Amino acid sequence: MSDGRLRWRCRRGMKELDVLLERWLDRRHPQASTAELQGFEWLLELQDPELARYLLAGQPHPDPALRGLIEGIRQG
């Protein structure tokens, strides 16, 4: 998926999520692995409340691969 489409999908109903997602996209997208990009796209499919639990509240995701990606997004 192109950077522009991903950036559009980063726009959420919560400004805090927008900032975290767009920051990761700006910093990691150019060198991100295929697995990271697929995980990021999968996260963008989540509803805002669920995404906020992982990114803002720090609830661990059950999938270890996504936990690493989520931590990377949270840390900026």
Sequence-ordered SSE layout with sheet pairings:
Layout: H1 3-9, H2 15-28, H3 34-44, H4 48-55, H5 64-75
Q: Can you walk through the features of this model?
A:
This protein has helices at about 5-10, 15-30, 35-45, 50-55, 65-75. The chain has 5 helices and no strands. With about 80 residues, it is mainly alpha-helical. The chain starts with a helix and ends with a helix. The protein has one domain (about 5-75): Flavinator of succinate dehydrogenase (DNA polymerase, domain 1). About 70% of the residues lie in helices and about 0% in strands.
What's the total count of β strands? 0
Terminal residue distance: 21 Å
Mean pLDDT: 92
Radius of gyration: 11 Å
Largest sheet: none
- As a percent range, the share of helical residues equals 55-70%
Strand content: under 5%
CATH topology: DNA polymerase, domain 1
Number of contiguous helices: 5
CATH superfamily: Flavinator of succinate dehydrogenase
**Broad CATH class:** Mainly Alpha
Based on the coordinates given, report the CATH architecture. Answer: Orthogonal Bundle
Structural class: mainly alpha
Total domains, how many? 1
Shape: globular
SSE order: HHHHH
Uncertain residue ranges: none
